[in-house]
Amino acid sequence: MLKNKVAVVTGGTRGIGFATVEKFLENNAKVILLGSKKESVDKALNKLKEKGYEADGFYPSLTNINEVKETFDKIVKKYGKIDILVNNAGMSAMDKIYDYNEEDFYKIIDLNVNAVFNCSRAVVEHMKENNGGVILNTSSMVSIYGQPSGCGYPASKFAVNGLTKSLARELGKDNIRVNAVAPGVTLTDMMKDVPDSVIEPIIKSIPLGRIGTPEDIANAFLFLASDMASYITGVILSVDGAARS
Ligand code: NAD
Questions:
Q1: Is 231 buried (19+), middle (13-18) or exposed (0-12) by CB count in 10 A?
Q2: What is the DSSP string of 77-106?
Q3: DSSP 242
Q4: How far is residue 235 CA from its own chain's centroid?
Q5: Is the CB of 185 under 6 A from ligand 1?
Q6: What is the pLDDT of residues 141-198, one digit of tens each?
Q7: Is 153 a catalytic residue?
Q8: What is the best residue among 39, 91, 143, 245 to mutate for testing ligand 1's pocket, by most ligand atoms within 8 Å of CB?
Q9: Probe target for ligand 1 pocket from 8, 13, 16, 187, with the most ligand atoms within 8 Å of CB
Q10: Which of 14, 155, 157, 223 has its CA 20 to 30 A from that of 164?
């Protein structure tokens, strides 16, 4: 589905990002994954190699626009273009407002929002020159319902939806589609440490009766990245088993 496409996936070293990298490789894209440090990028690339896939990787600070621009320019020089950008890197926190310290709030906004802006800013000119492209963002179920603690995380994902819908309207004329996937609770490394006593009530509240897998989310990204979604832009696609947090 992605033959001859060049895709960049941020936060591609594990979890949803890694599953998306694998899914894109399976569908014949050239994939460049971005991670936060050299060791995690090397580990992810080796894991892919063991599965018979060849990918590339870099580790710019996503919150530094100059480092991001340099990396994207390097990628375009090496691969000739970027067709697909998946802004997936993200972090969450559950602090109550009474205990929230401002550095933690700013940190979440910096990675979950500013980095999405930085990467989108760095890629749009390349996409325009190449007559189009696709930008995909990882939002969250909490971008629709909020959550009863950790207000920074839903606030950041509401902003991701705002960027998604606004950039879709601004960039349609340049044939750049912009969409987001809003996962529900998804079984990544982070979730594997959560005790059964917390997981079971969550599962009970999900109409489809299970937690999502990284592959469930990667499948949605594959569809939205592909030409099968050529008339879809500005959409926040929930992939959450109809969970309502
Ligand atoms: P994860 O912790 O397994 O992966 C996060 C990824 O982001 C990693 O690849 C990591 O390298 C990268 N990252 C973290 N901090 C970074 C930094 N400072 N600079 C650059 N990269 C950094 O988590 P995940 O669950 O796979 O999360 C991926 C995305 O999905 C996030 O945007 C998250 O908000 C979103 N999401 C996750 C869930 C869930 O239940 N797991 C639900 C909804 C949305």
A1: exposed
A2: HHHS---EEEE---------TTT--HHHHH
A3: T
A4: 14
A5: yes
A6: 999 989 999 999 999 999 999 999 999 999 999 999 999 999 999 999 867 777 788 7
A7: yes
A8: 91
A9: 16
A10: 14
